[in-house]
Specification:
Elements lengths: L1 E6 L5 H15 L3 E6 L8 H9 L17 E9 L2 E2 L1 H8 L8 E8 L4 H13 L4 E8 H5 L1 H15 L2
Parallel strand pairs: 1-2, 1-3, 3-5, 5-6
Antiparallel strand pairs: 3-4
Helix pairs in contact: 1-6
Bound molecules: flavin mononucleotide.
Length: 160
Amino acid sequence: MHAIIGFYSRTGSSEALAQAVSREFELLGVSTEPLAVEPRGRLGAVRGAFLALFRLGVPLAEEYELGDADLVVLVGPVWAGNISPPMRQLITQLPPLQGRRVVVLLVGTRRYERLAKTVADELRVLGADWVSSRGLRSAEVRDPDKLSSVVNAIAREVVR
Ligand SMILES: Cc1cc2nc3c(=O)[nH]c(=O)nc-3n(C[C@H](O)[C@H](O)[C@H](O)COP(=O)(O)O)c2cc1C
């Protein structure tokens, strides 16, 4: 199994979660590849929140590819009650998801389970074979014990 761990992170929480997931998968024998998603230009918080509110994306720094990954993990922050514009754009321009399983992990100050499920539904519509979703609080990501139990649960669900 080969996993691409795509993440956008402005202040480091989503990146820390992506790294922890990657480490846990590797322990279970899944090869992982990080994919740091970046907007093409500077994305300030105010414009970012406005774009997120209206569910708009932003041009990305690159055309991101999924290669032969059979597992795709998408990790990013919640902005204005939605997914961040870079993550929105990545989802918009994803190559076909048929034959791939996807995990959506959203980090917010609060836990956004329903938003994560909505994004999961969008990815099912895009053809993903199987999608799992989870909303996490940034405080959980900063707590090493909590982070370790969360990534363990994610890995157990995915690596069967
Ligand atoms: C522009 C902006 C909007 C945000 N909006 C929300 C929000 O609506 N709800 C929430 O719980 N957190 C919100 N946050 C907080 C972030 O989701 C939270 O700090 C997250 O952990 C940041 O992830 P990161 O460190 O990977 O960038 C917002 C942060 C920013 C910068």
